[in-house]
Request: fold
Amino acid sequence: MTETLKIDFDAIKEAAKGYQDDMVAFLRDLVRLKGESTEEGDKARRIQEEMEKLGFDKAWIDPQGNVLGEMGTGDVQIAFDGHIDTVGIGNIDNWDFDPYEGFEDDTTIGGRGTSDQLGGPVSAVYGAKILKDLGYLNDKFRVLVTGTVQEEDCDGNCWLYMIEQQDIKPEFVVSTEPTDGGIYRGQRGRMEIRVEVEGVSCHGSAPERGENAIYKMADILKEVEALNENDAADDTEIKGLVKMLDEKYNPEYKEANFLGRGTVTTSEIFFTSPSRCAVADSCAISLDRRMTAGETYESCIKEIEDLPSVKKWGAKVTMYTYKRASWTGLEYEQDSYFPTWVIPEDHEVTKALEDAYKNLYGDERIAPPSEKEEKKRAERPLTDKWTFSTNGVATMGRHGIPTIGFGPGAEDQAHAPNEVTWKQDLVTCAAVYAALPLVYTENK
Reply:
């Protein structure tokens, strides 16, 4: 463990504890403000209000509707990102409490978005406040806290806009997505692929006169399934995606093994036909493709194009695009490609976050007072990776800005009924967020 004697870690921990009630109240306010993707306006305004109340040097809402606040005026900008949109609630009958009113007990806060991921911006706002309270702001760094929009709809679109249109390029970014008390240094990527095949319609009483597009697609579907399920033996015609874990096929196989193999599944199917008494004259499918290290959108498209039935039937393979107006009315179009990213385990940002955490809390994940969480967290290494996707697909995946993850809550609470987070996580994260800029810039 690197000793950083100039930093009073005990004071940081005590300050974070002292703000627990304020963070809980702030989070509960955000839960009560409904705000799925493209409807986040009330949440953005509430976060700006809290930033201004706590004395941020600047707090503003940009043209896309992201809320941003800066604390300090130093040269190195360090960003803490958290998206403020949530998914819907699904079937209300699956909830034991009102998801928009939520609840609070001695250790837990319940409500839609508590883990995914309104708690992250809450802790980040108060982490910056702790830096100010303890007199740690200096000319070396400034903290940028962002509450970003439309992540659930199109992860990273917000940061593409901020980087490409507003020239916001921090030295590094901390994603405050839930990490179950751990430090996460990457994730698999994903992309959305469309496959289309044409047929010729005819009367259903004489199908031999036409070409049934659904039957053509049936061949393709089985090969897509094989791509996901097959092994990578030399005599396997359609080698499975598991091949990317092997040095023989992937120079980045070590990071691929860390992140996990890629996958592909058919998520939607469409067709056209003159009637229920006719042969279908077109068929299309959507593919959800998860990518590991060493895979790109070009390689994934080519993989589908090279399937025997895709070639046989002349199928068209393309990538979807995303274009949807934000709550402010702004549209920022992008390909539906969300690259894999992973920050090296020996990167200075990785080491700084590990040092900040270990000086505060030791070598293991801090678990809330829950037998299930204690067991789950104790079984995992402190530094690990996400299962799902984050805004890091834009910051590091597309633009190469070093990105790492540490955030309150649990991955398995995301998108689930009866979603909860823990007060201890809010406190732990606020303390780490306050310590990290100091550790990172100490010797710069």
Residues 1-5 have pLDDT under 50 and may be disordered. Residues 114-133 form the longest helix (20 residues). The two ends are 19 Å apart (CA to CA).
